[in-house]
## 1
Amino acid sequence: MNNILKKFLPQILAILFVVLIFGFLTINAQTNMDNRGIDFGFGFLSQESSFDVQFSLIEYSGSDSYARAFLVGLLNTLLVSFISIIFCTILGVIIGVARLSSNYLIKNSAAWYVEFFRNIPLLLQIFFWYYAALRALPLPEKADAWFGVTYMTVKGYYIPAMVWENLNVFLYCGLAAIISIIVLRNYANNLRDTKGKQVPVLLYSIALLIVLPLLSFLFGGVSLEFELPQLKKLSKISYIYEGGISLPPELIALVLALSLYTSTFVAECVRAGIEGVSKGQKEAAASVGLTPNQVLKLVIMPQALRIIIPPTTNQYLNLTKNSSLAAAIAYPDLVLVFAGTALMQTGKAIEIVSITMLTYLTISLTIAAIMNWYNKKIEIKEK
Amino acid sequence: MQTINFLKPNRNNIKNYSIIGSVLILISLIDVISNAFLKINLTSFLPGSLTILFPLILGLIGLNMMRIDYSGNKTLDLLNKNINTNNFNALLTLLILFSIIKALPPSLSWMILDANISGDSKDACTGTGACWTYIKVWFRRFMYGMYPNEFHWRINTAFILVIALGFVGYFMKENLKKYLALYYVIIYPIIAYLVIYYLISGGSFGLQWVETGAWGGLSLTFIVSFFCLIFCFPLGMIFALGRRSNLPVIKYISICYIEFWRGVPLITVLFMSSVMFPMFLPEDFFMDKLVRVIIAITLFEAAYCAEVIRGGLQSLPRGQYDAAKSLGMGYWKMHIFVILPQALKLVIPGIANTFLALVKDTPLIFVVGLAELAGMLALAKTNPKWLGFAMEGYIFASIIFWIICYAMSKYSYNLEAKYKTER
């Protein structure tokens, strides 16, 4: 009896506590909404949004619904996260490896880089790039061409747009190349396991990746033209670039700040991963006659990656969540478009904030679930 | 046949080679320095692109000439081992050196040589460099926000009192030490709250009332992070224990709580606290915006705290639990006297990191309209009398935050090292 009481009493109390809190909050919300004449519901999602968004990946205008505005915001969030993840990975790997260099200067500059960018709040870094650094860029008419065709101006970065013809043929060729690489890899692995023969897979893969898309240009009727940004005079003093793609300064500031900030954490993950592989592994691999390249490729990297990937994914998740700081510099991400503008217009605080939080929660939990599955898969199975 | 190894030293000619090598490096350094500091191009007689590459090539040859293993000269060996192991390393060394030299004069002249600090208006800034006058004039605003100037001593006194009370634990008598946890978890937060409420808010004891809307600047950053810090720790502990509990309901409630807060960005939590929270409160019940924000950040950080503490609980060997149970201890006795003292010691570095993240997150309260340092900068930036000094402001704020965060992270490293050796 006593045992059962001990087991169930706390649980019942906990449930009661949670139910009480939620009940209290719901009743309050109900009375508050009744008093203010707001009704709860998600019907507003299909209503006309009647606000404009500065920068969107899909067609969007004020006559579209709030649901589409949500999608625009979500896509913008994903875009900035995706670009920043690529840059922070490249930077992070370079800095992480540099921290292990035998060169005193390189090691210390990398360490200071990490200490510097890690210890300044991200919001300040975003503000610095947006309000201070990017504002010092030249006006459109005074901008110099970078790489001949792109222009970095105070109004944004203008790059040539690609105009494709028969893009689908090109994409099919790319897909074919990827499939044939997978087939080739399996074949090569098979050959290695059964006959002990090595096939230079990497070389063939690169060749495939270049040759197949190239063929599509020659025979598939694919053509590619670049639409260059052209300077155009709007009025006496104001100029603008037309054509091409314009990346707004908000996006650039965000990508810069996010990738510099997160790269320090990725660098620490990479360093910890490489340091985590014991020295004996390297020596053992060398003693069975592997070349330094093979040691790195076949022994060190697989083990290091096992340590590196989980915390790095965590950092990617943090980056995605941190990209919500975009709202502070008016980059139209999910938080600004939906939890900002849409909320102001509809006044549906509870619905909109919940949808926004649930969206981020879904992204986080999905990636966490994938990571758990991956961790289980690569776990060292000890006999 | 003797191989002729041009530019490669051996033990016999190392002296000549090292002298020639250092002269070459010296020339390349002089070239770069004169280029950067005096704007004199010593190699203007060379064609365009060679002018830039000249010091690099010279330096590389010089470093190559000095590279020999076990030369017998200690300094040379040290140098070779550290910055000159192969050509690639030598190249990187030179690139880093040159870029530091190149970056030095412009940043020096902007920050110090051409900068202004005298005067008290925008007109005093005549130089091409930074205008530190701006920081000087706005300094009090950046530190204390819109808090009335004549009452700044109240904020200072409150902070000194709170810090002093925080150190009480160090001077406690031996027989009182067992109440230390009680003091820090329950009594200290209450005292600190009272001190900050009566001193900074005022309203009684003859002190004038200052509403929280006027609070701001760096002191607000400290207040917010301080309260979140002392409240999120006990809360995190509860949820960490909950997540490790055998009782399924409690376990899943804790998991839901932790995963929910860890899955959403802080900025949405702050939005929630400012627009959604008032809807959930009883009618006619007013809660200050600052209090709502502190509650929101506390709930948020408690989830991170809980995960760190759970790590500590998990790393304790099972034997500790078994031993405590075999002595007949119950759940609470076991945790309070055996498990938590050991686990908390283990997680101190992790907790310090969480707090570091918390301090770095506080500028975010700017998005709900509380003007801490970042918010004050945004205000000052748009002041018509002081337009165009965003750069100085953000550099100033970055330096302040950097010093705080760097000191905290170094402290947590030290703690980590200290507790590592004890086990």
## 2
Amino acid sequence: MPALGSADFGVRTFYAASHPNDKCGPNGLPLTPNSIKILGRFQYLSALSHPKLCQYIDISKTKHECMIVISEHHRTCLREKIKIENSLSETQIANIGFQILDGLTYLHEKKVVHRNLSLDNILIDKQGNIKLSEYGLYYMTDYGADVSFPIGLPRYMPPEVLCSGPVKVDEDTGHCVQPTSGPKADVWTFGVILLELILGKEIWAGQGIEEVLMKIIELIKSDMSALDHLCQDPILGEKLKGFSKEMWDVLRLCLAVSSSKRASSAELKQHPLFRYVREFTVAHKKEFSMFTTELRCADLELPTYEQTIANEFSDDHLSQRSMQEVYYLWRLAGGDLDSVLKKAGMSKTRPPVHLLPCYGILAGDVFGQDRDYAELLNNTVITLSQEQLRFRLRDIPSTAFYPLLEDELKSPEPQQLPTSPSYGEMTSSATLPLVIREKDIEYQFHRIILYERLLSAYPFKRPYIWREARIDVPPLVRANVWAALLEVEGDVEGLYTSIDKETPTATDRQIEVDIPRCHQYHELLSSPTAHVKFKRVLKAWVLSNPQYVYWQGLDSLCAPFLALSFNNEAVAFACMNAFISKYLHKFFMRDNSAVIQEYLAVFSHLIAFHDPELSNHLEGIGFIPDLYAIPWFLTMYAHVFPLHKIVHLWDTLLLGNSSFPLCIGVSILQQLRDRLLSFGFNECILLFSDMPEIDIERCVQDSIKFFCSTPKSASYRQHARPLAQKNSTERPNISYYSRDYHELPQTDLSMEPMSIEELKSEKCPRISAEDLIELGELAGSASSRSPTKKRQNSKPMILILDVRHHEDFKRGTLQGSINIPFQTAFSPEGDLNPCPAVHVLNSRRNQVIVVVGNRGRNAANFANELVRLGYSRVCVLHKGIDVFRTTDLITLPPADL
Amino acid sequence: MPHTIEKDFSYTFHTKTTNSTLNVPITVPMHNDSKEFVARLTQVHNLPCFVHQDLESKLDGFVSKETSQLYDKNANEAVEKVRNGEIDVNDLVKQWLPAYCQELKMYAKPHQLSNDERFAEVYHKLIHSPALETLLNLEHEYSLGVERVTKERDRDLQHLQDKQRADMDEALKSVGSVYKDEDINLLAQKQFENTQIVEGKWTSELRTLHEQQKVEYREWVFQVHEDSQGKAPLPPYVQRLRSLSSVLPDADVEERQAHVSRLEESFTIHLGAQMKTTHNLRLLCTDVLDLCRHKPHTIGGLVIPQPQRLQTAMSLYSNNLCGLVLLADNRLNSYTGIKQKFAQICDSSTDFHFPTLDHQFQVIEEQLPKAADVKAKKKGSSDEVDQLSLHSSTSSSSDEKEKVGEKKLHSGDFYLTKHSNLSEVHVVFHVVTDDNLRTSDITSRHPVILSIRNIIKLCFRYDIHTLTVPLLLTHEMSEEMTISWCMKRAELMFKCVKGFMIEMATYSSQESRTIQFLVPRGLSEELFHQISNMIPTIFRLSNPLVVKSN
């Protein structure tokens, strides 16, 4: 989006037409409210950007179909200009005209018809440039079908619009019956505006609608050309005499009753009348966008000395920020549209008790209701005051607007990550709860600027983005940050374009059924525009992954990405693709049971590992993960939570490896622990049939905690994504945990695939010898890569429990292990027989207990018993003690005391 | 005049050896990017990559040319129709006029506030000012005045009735001796006429009193408002009001709590699968009219206004209204049963804001023909298929029936009255019911239940945030209402209301609503608890807050 510059924010409201009672669309579902349709169509407009257009910024919908549109606004309009200057010279008019044409041509290229051009919404900015505003009303209202008022004022009405009559809406499709206006409708209006500029006042001023319409009809019916007919008016004729032939020609080309004889805006732009203006126009500079193959420097012109000086000495750094960003900050600074509208007297004023109908029939129609006059179209624009925002940001030093991103790789510890430049004063804020941070304007300001700079240096600055994302992700830049975290790169648009998303396929029907049920509480995602995009992205994914099929749940996975990158399907698609291949590898195979079974088995292991009591209870009542957790994992919780919670969850999930989602599952169970423990089978089913409220921030914190206290090999899955071929050295080795286990080189000491039956028969996860060496610091503490062990001299987090025969133990074991032989360990009642080793076991309960045995099943059975007895964090050494034979880690235990 | 048109696009490219031509039909205007279309063409027809750019630019040119021609054609056709007189110019202008005059503020006539609305504005301001207490006290004074008259009327009528009974008894004793049967009839008729005269006298007296009070009250409100507009710091009326209000003695705790004796239980629930909205449910056991009736509230022997009055008055013109569903029969009057009782309550004090009940009924009646038209139309369109197969004679007879019953209310219809003088309610939905509500096997498609859906929808549309619904769809206990009958009905209603709430909350804001489920007085306490235990199984209660000792 362009920089704010000297612009204001303008607010307009209008009411969408409400549907007749209880009508259903062709698909049998109730009709989408017009306000939602408008909301969806608006998004395209906010992606348009041109120096001659007022940027659209945001739209929102309040009660009762009232739409609030926020756009760039300037305080002077053309009407005021001609009022002040009285009569304009031909050069001035040509200059203004060319700029209007410039904007119109861009709109027409983008398939948007203005239809609403008037002296009041052609604005002039502080530098004297023309800015068209309100050009999107016709487009966003589906060519006038979604509102009950006509678009455009009578005196500017092109002949074909007038002749087609007011918009009639087709009851079945909801679109308008008449053909929609083409771009040449704007050219007629442009002609009328030129006339008004020449006249120095409004044409047909002071005449009623009826008279004005009759005048236009006269033009239509007349055999003369419209211009000649108009020139019969003495004042206009007199005024026009002073103008050149070229001006006459342009007017004639605009004011042709027959559309085929009218010139197009692009043709008019090339007209000789504008040749001088044309020479001095500068090409429109493209703005930065993250994934594009277009050259950013294509139209680059180095700034002149004057421009640099002007920029350098401007104190208003805020005006250099993009409009979207400033608007976002404006809202954080306490800007509230409702109260602004209320102050301006534009919100609904009549009390509802006066509007109520007095009679209703069974079919749902009501009678006797009164209309609220506030629903009429009000063309007033309210300017939002930036005072409060600027006041809030007054103490921010200018340097904060341009933070330095020095490369700190030269610092003494090359392994360490660069510290965040916003770290210093922001560290205190960074510890506050996320909801507070997201509302803190200063904090957000620093974060956004920092991210924005990092993102424009993507992928070069990816390590930094990664680093910052560990603190938090500001909502404004989330779409791009996620793309960066998912390592989306390259010509995403080209790739997306090349996929055929139109040709019908076998999955279309299922996709069409699923979309209208997917996150439909979200206003944007429930719009028809979103449904079309949904379908395209999903189809693109299915087509580009021929090894996979469409499973229900894919729609939920798509939703967060689409909601974030609504105007950039290609990025949404690329993110989704990267996300699925990272976290849901093989999940969407036609037969995915093996993958899911393994996933669920590992999940049960983790429950037993972290919460044996809960695990025992759930197993006791037969409430296994298969009954509730499949939708969790298949959609990475996108089906379970509302979008505003998913984004926070995924902010963290994207940083973890593919096992992190398992820990989220454990932490959800943790939050419901008390209830689950008191519930029987039926109540548990009922509880999860409609997921209760979950405190998502706590859930995220808990899952990080669980994640960090789980040995990596414990969540090993054979179906996880294998080692990626590409060399990803540019990503820093931030921590032991953010890497996937599967991406590390395999050795004899690593985990190996196990059969499902084996996995299911064991309650506890297995730990690899590698992990044991590392976490138990058997090879000395220096090589530790684990972030969980903060202090170098702290005790190892592992307690090794050797369950072999006492004789075997005597002959050699791992350092620091204790011995409880399986044969003699348990009493007939199933309790542990007391002995010194059991005492040690009980006294070190918060450590990870690694059960070490021979190759047989003794170790696993022993571990199962420990879980039954409520010991937490129990795991079994994979392949038993034998795996250490090749190493020199087996030592003789100290003699018995 | 089509919105889109299909055109044939042909593209030729040369290689060293061959000339290839590609022909494809293209719909203009094109919805998607032409780039995408080119990619599709390349894929399907296996085109060489070097034609890519050329194809794209050719296609772009073709599409824009054809699109422009389509627009031109449509535009010219429209203009031509007017030029050759196929469309009448005056008609056209007549169509445009209302489009502008009724929809654009700049052309519309400025909205004139009616007297009622002006009063509403002033009242709303005052009720949220220090004048509030006085306002209420004044209203209360007036209502005491009405009460006096009603009491007198009742006494008078009672007296008359007693006297007439005595006369009649006397007369009956001497039937055959002194009086003949005709004389008795004559007496009865005379007595009846007398009663009517007396009743009529009282009714008109009451009406005059209402009118008079309303005029006085409104004048007073406007006066106070003007006073308060004038002077800046402490307008004299405040003092006047203060002194007035301080006369009232403070309430004793006992007195305050004396009347709270209804059985009720509240729940906070979450609705929605992913996005949850919070709402409140309340189950209460009381007489439906208790929500309307002002209970005598005495403090230190003085009758003073109830605290509920305050809330109801303050929210009357706000966006937070309270509604009540009252079951009624299909006659629009208030002669019998609960309708009569309700009318009595309405008349027991003056409604300063809305017309009298009778007057509101008249307005409703005016709407009935309109509604009948819509009904007939709907019926016609849905029965169209059936009608075709039927003989014409039967269909015409049904039409006639429809005409006769033009003004009839049907089961499932509802009419709505507004009140400012009821205790906890602003809006009353009178739902038309029929006798089959008593049977135990009604379904979710029953007209009354559908009507409740329409009402809930209306509540969402018009900011009625609290709605009271008779849970068992009856206001009184009766014989057939066994425990299983009640449980079944309660379950049906809970589930339906839940469904309606979820349906209506789609697309609308996240505001929370309160639904009060009313069960008739006389329901056993045990059954009440059974019903209340059902709520957690049907609705998802919000997370219980578990307090832990450490």
